[in-house]
Specification:
The protein has 154 residues and is an alpha/beta fold. The protein is built from seven helices and five strands.
Length: 154
């Protein structure tokens, strides 16, 4: 029986979700697929909550466009995947100019693209761990920010 129905206190983890993790749900033959599926299951059961910068939608769409060009998926499959992505409860956040300045500082501090720094900024703002499968970002961020590699998700 579900302990939440018995009145037990349920703890929900909040994560910032990186686009590379999201793509594991949409593309075939991705590494760490089992871990990504576990995360998705936790989101659907509300054991984990996700947030992301709003530009993640375009980042995911662009990656799908590249996958179409590489013949990993068809355009129809990509369109269907995008339409179904709204089923996942992800809170998207817009950035303002002052926050963009903070993202630039993070990017400069650890030598990352500003797009990647935006995920780290949001993780600090939301007091949440960033979950990523981007090895380069993880290596640069792990000593400075709360970041979890997807392969270590349990």
């Amino acid at each position: 029986m579900d302990s939440r129905r018995q009145g037990a206190i349920s703890v929900t983890s909040l994560y910032v979700l990186d686009a590379c993790v999201f793509l594991k749900w949409l593309l075939p033959d991705e590494p760490y697929k089992e871990k990504a599926d576990k995360l998705k299951q936790d989101i659907m059961s509300e054991e984990a909550k996700m947030c992301a910068p709003s530009f993640m939608v375009q980042e995911v769409t662009n990656a799908l466009w590249k996958a179409i060009k590489l013949r990993r998926i068809t355009q129809e499959e990509a369109k269907e995947a995008l339409k179904n992505s709204g089923d996942l409860q992800i809170n998207f956040y817009e950035v303002n100019w002052g926050e963009a300045s903070d993202e630039l500082s993070i990017a400069s501090k650890i030598d990352l693209a500003v797009y990647d720094a935006a995920y780290l900024f949001l993780s600090e703002k939301m007091n949440a761990k960033l979950i990523t499968s981007d090895d380069k970002m993880y290596q640069k961020a792990k000593g400075h920010f709360r970041v979890l590699h997807l392969k270590d998700y349990v």
